[in-house]
Design goal:
Family: Belongs to the folylpolyglutamate synthase family.
CATH architecture: 3-Layer(aba) Sandwich
Protein name: Dihydrofolate synthase
Distance between the termini: 21 Å
CATH superfamily: Mur-like, catalytic domain
Helix content: 40-55%
GO molecular function: ATP binding; dihydrofolate synthase activity; tetrahydrofolylpolyglutamate synthase activity
CATH class: Alpha Beta
Organism: Lactiplantibacillus plantarum
Keywords: ATP-binding, Ligase, Nucleotide-binding
Length: 128
């Protein structure tokens, strides 16, 4: 069982990057096993070459000023992995990260065992 911060990071970063499939079917199955959390939240996906971080920071401040709770998931991190996942600008705690990894690990194991291409390899998305 994953019960430490270092074990959680090892699990996240330890997924092989070589099993690539040009479809979204694995990710759709993964999200379905999690209860389709993407359908339960309003989201904005910020993409592009430059300015993503400042755009996300400005949007976060605007939405928070309007009384909304704002979760962000960004990449890369500067000092600690926890910076990537935050709520209202506060990074996720080590304990919360461990809890999320404990939640997804059995699903990843199940999909690795049942899907020919395995579970998603790059576990950069964690459940809400």
């Amino acid at each position: 069982m994953i019960d430490t911060y270092s074990a959680a990071l090892a699990f996240i970063h330890g997924r092989t990057q070589f099993k690539k499939a040009p479809t979204l079917s694995r990710m759709r199955q993964f999200l379905h096993e999690l209860g389709d959390p993407q359908l339960k939240v309003a989201g904005i996906h910020v993409a592009g070459t430059n300015g993503k971080g400042s755009t996300v920071a400005n949007l976060r401040e605007l939405f928070m000023a309007d009384g909304l709770t704002v979760g962000t998931f960004t990449s890369p991190f500067i000092v600690r992995f926890n910076e990537r996942i935050s709520v209202d600008g506060t990074p996720i705690s080590d304990e919360e990260l461990v809890g999320l990894v404990q939640q997804i690990q059995p699903i990843v194991a199940k999909l690795d065992a049942t899907l020919a291409s395995g579970a998603p390899q790059n576990l950069r998305s964690l459940p809400q």
